[in-house]
Write a structure and sequence with these properties.
elongated, about 45% helix, about 120 residues, 3 strands, alpha+beta, single chain
């Protein structure tokens, strides 16, 4: 089971898709399910301008999983009692906790550990 599954996040792969009655909008989907539509308010009205945002959203489960794995490995390798208070912890943990809100770093690690049983 992946970290994403253990955290209750829709598993990847997330893909860019066309949505709307006439496929006029860009979205992010998993098979048979729409995650979100991506609609920016650009003056040009060019829907292709939404593609970079959709690509970032579609990559987010894999990026979050990689970031969590890196933070866990780094925390294990450091000889300090409070990883969250280190420079690395202050840099890595806020975006992880933001993506997993309202779970704290400790709750995230516990959820992952429970899923390993």
């Amino acid at each position: 089971m992946s970290i994403i599954d253990k955290l209750g996040i829709t598993p990847s792969p997330w893909e860019i898709c066309s949505v709307g009655k006439h496929a006029e909008n860009i979205g992010v989907c998993v098979p048979y399910n729409l995650i979100c539509t991506v609609d920016s308010y650009l003056k040009s009205g060019d829907k292709k301008a939404n593609i970079p945002d959709a690509q970032l959203i579609a990559a987010s489960p894999e990026m979050l999983e990689a970031l969590i794995k890196f933070a866990i490995d780094l925390e294990r390798s450091m000889i300090c009692p409070a990883f969250k208070d280190t420079q690395w912890g202050k840099y890595l943990l806020p975006p992880i906790e933001k993506a997993c809100y309202p779970k704290s770093w400790e709750e995230i690690k516990e959820r992952i550990k429970q899923g390993d049983k």
